[in-house]
What does this fold into?
Amino acid sequence: MKRILTKILTICALPLLLIACWQLGSMGHWWGSYIVPPPERVWSSWLQLAASGQLARHIGASLMRVMTGFAIAAALALPSGIWLGLHPAALRVCHSLLEFLRNVPPLALLPMLILWFGIGEASKIIIVVLATFFPIFLNTLDGMSHPDEQLLEMGRVYGLSSRAVFWHIRLPQALPAMYTGLRIGLGYSWRSLIGAEMIAAAAGLGYLILDGEEMARPDIVVAGILTLGVLGIAADALMRAIGQRYLWTERKEHHE
It folds into this structure.
């Protein structure tokens, strides 16, 4: 129990310190309440949004877009990174196009996406897919492109087929890089979605933040930002739990 309490205090110490400084600054009038609203005002607005059901509606809309876009991006990026990692000649052919697409910000494509797909869900989900694809793809590609040569040589000595080498050597070695790409990509999903929702949406946390700005309600803006941050932390914690439950357990059993 003591270790658990110590861990909780360690995790919460800095956020609590920042909240205390925020409260002291508001009480001391170090800044105007219009610039940075006091914590109690933000909390009150958050409770009002939650009680009215608006917050749940905005969170649900954003979660649906993030999860859909993330799933599509992972379904495209993982096999693409694996295949190109196994075929360097194909990677050289695709390299220039991939680099061009990687360096174009997804939000720069939003006007064209709205023209092609309208202001419905499709354009927002495509923005998430474009932002999420490359972190997953590049990490998968890196993991597949740099196998342990000694293990490959051992596989050849034992007469393993190419398929066996892939399943028992190359793919297990690439899993940590693929997992890292998925975690990074999930964060990019949230970042890109909020920008898309601020431009063309009728619901979602990005819309909530923009609506608060237009109504001159910084308390709503801060409440939306804090909600977004907490959701991001929860999503990453879920990813870490999945990795610890499946990825690292399998690697430990493999080494044993």
User: Anything to note?
Assistant: The chain has one domain: 52-255.
